[in-house]
Amino acid sequence: MYKNKTFLAIIPARSGSKRLPGKNTLDLNGKPLIVWTIEAALKSKYIDKVFVSTDDQGIADISEKYGANVPFLRPDILATDESNTISTVLYLLNELDECNEKYSHIILLQPTSPLRTTKDIDNSIELLQDSDSDAVVSVCEAEHSPLWCNKIPKDGDLSNFLDESVLNKRSQDLDTYYRLNGSIYLCNIKRLLKEKTFLLKSDCIAYKMKQERSIDIDNKLDLLQAEAQMKYSQGFKK
Q1: Global pTM?
Q2: What are phi and psi of 106, to 5 degrees?
Q3: Chain-centre distance of CA 154, in angstroms?
């Protein structure tokens, strides 16, 4: 609890992953991937309960071993390639409501963001309070300016690829753009139930994170990059 607000953390972890099979339980620097997020959430000063939503008993067993709550397995209809995260969140909130377990806010923590820290989690909750907002979503600087991006026609012609306003400009001369990094989605539950999105139409503020903590594990290269980043950080601390 934080200033009369209660916080439920949900970590969504379905079993199916075509690009990186078994992703959520793959070893990352000595621990299953999902454990990094579970441990970060459990160490938070403000989170009241940590739930893992999964369709896989193996993921459930690992999650419970490291201290997370797995009250039930997710139904198969919410564990397909076409399933979206918001449907899973709404299902879990409904199940908890029927058990008369209520919270004022929810924080979605994807297990594919293992470099997100407890400090990031707590800072985002404090930002929500200090800014008097209803939602906080994490972002980081875009690695490349979208002003240097465009579609390519079938013939590969690049004659109109860039707008004249950015021709011959250095990257440091362009405006800074940010992207969602998938690490933190924090929201007032009443607003979430009404709008069915964490990106509310109003009172939604950005929590800025550094790029090096914004790796989102989607493939083998991402996993190797995250491991290298962790080992580098650990060596630097020594």
Answers
A1: 0.94
A2: -125, 140
A3: 35
Helix (H) or strand (E) holding 103: none
DSSP-assigned states of every residue in 106-144: EEE--TT-TT--HHHHHHHHHHHHHTT-SEEEEEEE-SS
pLDDT in tens, 210-228: 999 999 999 999 999 999 9
Alpha helices, DSSP H, located in the chain: 33-42, 57-65, 85-98, 118-130, 189-195, 220-237
Q: Strand pairing partners for 49? A: 8
Handedness of CA 69, 71, 73, 75 (dihedral sign): negative
Q: For 18-30, write each residue's pLDDT tens digit.
A: 789 899 999 999 9
93 Cβ contact partners less than 8 Å away, ≥ 6 residues apart: 106, 189, 192, 193
Over the range 132-160, which residues count as b (16 or more CB within 10 Å of their CB) and which as e? ebbbbbbbbbeeebeeeeeeeeeeeeeee
CB 208 within 8 A of CB 178: yes
Q: Are 59 and 52 in contact (CB under 8 A)?
A: yes
Cα(72)–Cα(63) distance, rounded to whole angstroms? 12
User: In whole angstroms, how far apart are CA 15 and each of 18, 74, 85, 187, 216?
Assistant: 10, 10, 14, 26, 17
Residue type, 94: N
* Contact of 79 with 14, CB cutoff 8 Å: yes
Separation CA 17–CA 200 (nearest Å): 28
